[in-house]
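Hi team, as promised in this morning's meeting, here are the two structures we talked about. I've kept the exact order from the run log so nobody has to guess. The first one is mostly here for context; it's the second one we should focus on when we meet again. Sequence first, then the predicted structure tokens.
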Amino acid sequence: MARRQTSGAPTRSDIIREFIAQHPAAGPKEIRESLRKQGHNVSTALVNRIKYNDPMAKSAAASSATAEPEVAEAPAKADRRGRRKGRGRRPGRRPGRRPSANGSVRISIEHLLAAKKLVEELGSIDTAQAAVAALARLG
């Protein structure tokens, strides 16, 4: 459990909350960089935790909002942060690959035959491995 500071100095969380109240539209990286320029050493993880999970920061940002807030059209289907749902693939998954029970990629006989043909065309396994590694680096 975190200890309270005995001096009257504000905590890093308090500093982040104050900044969020003054700049509610600022992103976590922008907040971190601005506070570092002011001499406060805060991590992006702490800024994220305060900005998105801290009810005190949310109420401070809401109370400091201008009298006429910008009205933006909400997407038809959105999660609790206003982001649209169902767009793109889930992180960490690559299309067309199905992991086996132990987490490795399954290799069919067709894959092996294609690999054999590639090795024959390139001349050696080392050359084929180098080509596949270069292809992986390209994306």
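And here is the second protein, the one for discussion:
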Amino acid sequence: MRRMSGFNCQVLIDEYEGTITQIQLRATTMKTYDGRVVYIPNQEVFQASIINNTASPRRRSSVMVGIDYGEDLSGAIAVINKVLESSTCTLACTSASSSPKLSAKADRVISSCNKREYKR
């Protein structure tokens, strides 16, 4: 339980992701992002790897965007960058790895992955 800083932490425990609402003697209560309440036995919590999403003020996010082959890829990337730059939540790119990259080609679309850090 030391890996969580307390109530209202947003965590991922096994297949459950949400906000910790209560820690009791036998179970930890979590409210998932879709509104469900999950009771996880503390034995499972103690043995699980826990990802604490609120431990740091910065996070990195990846978004997959499908772009048709007939569309202008460089134009689409320019639009993505413009939206990210105008957002008050995203941080400035600090490296080339933050810019959109072509990641896969499917039958009808190109997948572009954009990774960007943002602050809570």
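Starting points for discussion:
DSSP finds two helices and eight strands in the chain.
The chain has a mean pLDDT of 76.
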